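step: validate -> pass
step: tokenize input -> pass
step: predict -> running
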Amino acid sequence: MSPRNPTPLQSLLLPLKPASLQCLHRFIEYKRTPLAHPVPKRRTAAVAIILFVGRKGDLYVLLSTRSGELRTYAHDTALPGGKYEDGDEDEEGTARREAYEEIGLPIDKDRVRCLTLLDPFIAGNQLLVTPVVFLVTDNTINPVLNPDEVKALFSMPLAAFLHDRPADIPGWNFGLSERVTPAPLGSVPPPERPPYTDNEDGGVGGREGRYYQYRDVNWGGGMVRMHRFLTGREGGGVKPVYGLTAAILLHAAMVGYGEAPSFPAAAPGQKTMHQRIAWMMKRGGALPRAAEADGLLDAWLKEDDGGGVDETKARL
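step: predict -> pass
step: emit ->
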């Protein structure tokens, strides 16, 4: 057990399924691969992957519907998170502060434990986003939503992001999430936006009602697979999980459960995240400008941004 978590988790939680307990331990033992070179802090952000144990022992992740008053990504389904601010000790500090500001999650390291930090992602606005995995060990915590930022809060099983059919997701009645809380009151955009595609036949123009769909876009020096998962709440106006949020949760589920998804996670020849960052550093934009201002760009300019991934071990 990691020194960060000296008390056995199973003594703090509702009964856990064996797969859920193994998932938590994989997160605790996970060691992210650091970037080869520093990046400017003002171009970094963090999101909180907040897990809790459902009534049947499965792990669920909290998701929010963003306020319609926000200037960007209004009404989108998202994870709590935001940009680094002066005073944040590290990525965990950024994620905790943002989760407190958005949904009132206590900044309490015993009641909300940090399990691990995952590898950073590059967003369309050239922010480097670090996912931070938390576990709520106090089931009496009640979220208090900030209506300026969050309209509603709901949950999905973390395992849902490994499957392309809801019938294969353990412990979930699709469309009936375990917890719903109503509100109390890009500089390198993908140039192509083809329709989402059914995983089964690989054709274009897949049926919009399918639980899982994907599309491949040319972004960051090569093709990138963009995923979309229905929440089961679309009839109530909740948007699917897609884009960066879907990629982050897919990667988290792969790490936690130690298995590949039931669908190809990456586009053919898709570059690693490190290669995509290196590619963007050479093409201009907010990230390389900030790196140049901080004297960090030269090291990135020497990076090789070619190659691709082993699709059997695709890490988005």
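step: describe -> Residues 1-6, 178-194, 198-208, 308-316 have pLDDT under 50 and may be disordered.
step: cleanup -> pass
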